[in-house]
Amino acid sequence: MAAPRPPPPTASSASFGTASSGGSLPIWEPSACLPRLTRVLNARDLAEALPAIRPGRIFRSGSPSNASLEDALLLRRDLAIQQFVDFRSSSELAEDTAWPLVLSNGVIKTYDSSGRVSEVVVDRNPELAGHGCDAFPAELHRLSLLERNKFIRGLLPRLPYRAVAAAAWYKLVGDEVAMRGAVVPVINAGGLLLIYQILLETASVELARTLEVVAAAAAERKPLLFFCKLGKDRTGTVAALVLTACGASRNQIVADYARSDGVNEVALGGIERMEDVQGMDSAIFASAPAECMEALLDHAQEAYGGLAKYMTGIGFGEERQAALREALTGGDW
Fold first, then answer.
1. How far is CA 227 from the centre of its chain?
2. What does the pLDDT look like over 176-212, one tens digit per residue?
């Protein structure tokens, strides 16, 4: 049985629009609330990308781990978000400071590569007492999509043999500058598309579990927010999968991705800080140009038969995709 959902916010705590029927009754617009977030980057409702998705059901953003009190109230009370999915790497998690606000009266679930899940309970936070935003428990699902070892495993087959041999030799003799000179130009030439290709290949288990978490939350009528550090790359890739499952067109998927182009920061699970790849061109990896998502969709078509078939191949098949689509686009919550 689905858990009851908190009521929409009052006029004093949220933005309202005019009813589409032409009347004067106010309607709640989550997309109008999101600009009020002060410490959560790049936040938006996926309904903005695909109008078939009902507003207020699924959101994407940068990390809310450093959210202000006002941000926490907006997420937990005004938007009634009960499920959070975190794609950040183990090294990025050390930057967290404010989760006790957002996850007051919640639980953190961490999934390892073998499928095991560990849980940590988060107590009620006294700062939120009296605000009514933690009346319903929250769950944070941690599913890292980019880790150093996976990135290297996915990168090596893409490097020319001569580059691999040269890098190995320079590494052996301790010439770090020359070693990077053999590898980094290949990464820069591959750009963000290379990162996304590696992500699809090496994080298929995590992506399948992510889709199951999203589908379960939607079926249980629990609003969900998924995010990475900036809400651009890992989040953009998952958004493309969810939008595909919901029937979005190519243009809608590309347009949603390109909205992150103004973030202008690099956050690739800490890969960008690895000594072995110092010299990555930040101008390339801080962007989110439409042509990059166009190229990813082309790659998915060539390699897997499209993103829908990719999802089927990793265990989230047509029936599961249809159920997710119905839960996000149909009925009333």
1. 3
2. 666 666 778 889 999 999 999 999 999 999 999 999 9
